[in-house]
Amino acid sequence: MAPRRCLLCLVLWLSIPVVLPVWAQDHAQEPPWRAVVDADGRQRVQMVGGSYFFKPSHIIVKANLPVVLSVRLEPGIIPHTLVIKAPEAGVVIDELLSTEAKTFVFTFSATGTYPFYCRNKLLFFKSHRAKGMEGVFEVVE
């Protein structure tokens, strides 16, 4: 019985690299999400991350108005980060995420398209970004 259990565990373990990228691609097919400016002049965005995805993955915000981004991870064992490198627009973030929401407040000072992604990578495997854990902020007037 023990060899069967080991074989089953091995099959399940080996199927993870096949199943998760397909599941992550399903999340990437969603339409852009447009942030609405609240009465206080801030654009609020709630984002969820998980097994190689961010949702929403395409976010439209206005330039020169503060963005309040709240990000949390779905429960799981794989650690993830949020990276936004847009120094030309005044935004640089590189933070470890958790299942408890983290809030970031920033303002894009220029229009354009700015990527965000998870920078994690395990040994010889593809990076989380290469597996689909990425998205864009589309900053408009």
Describe the structure.
There is one protein chain. The protein has one helix and ten strands. The chain is of the alpha/beta class and 141 residues long. The protein has one domain: Immunoglobulin-like (Sandwich), CATH 2.60.40.420. It has a six-stranded mixed β-sheet, with no helix packed on it. It is elongated. The relative contact order is 0.19. About 9% of the residues have low confidence.
Descriptive key words:
alpha/beta; 39% strand; 4-stranded mixed β-sheet; Immunoglobulin-like; single chain; 6-stranded mixed β-sheet; 141 residues
The CATH superfamily is known as Cupredoxins -  blue copper proteins
The assigned structural class equals alpha/beta
What does the radius of gyration come to? 17 Å
CATH topology annotation: Immunoglobulin-like
**DSSP helical segment count:** 1
Return the domain count.
1
What is the mean pLDDT?
Answer: 88
Main-sheet strand order equals: 1-4-10-9-6-7
Largest sheet: 6 strands, mixed
Assign an overall shape: elongated
Helix content: 10-25%
CATH class membership: Mainly Beta
Residue ranges: pLDDT <50 for 5 or more in a row? 8-13, 18-24
Please report which band the strand proportion falls in: under 5%, 5-15%, 15-25%, 25-35%, 35-45% or over 45%.
35-45%
N-to-C CA distance: 64 Å
Run of helices and strands: HEEEEEEEEEE
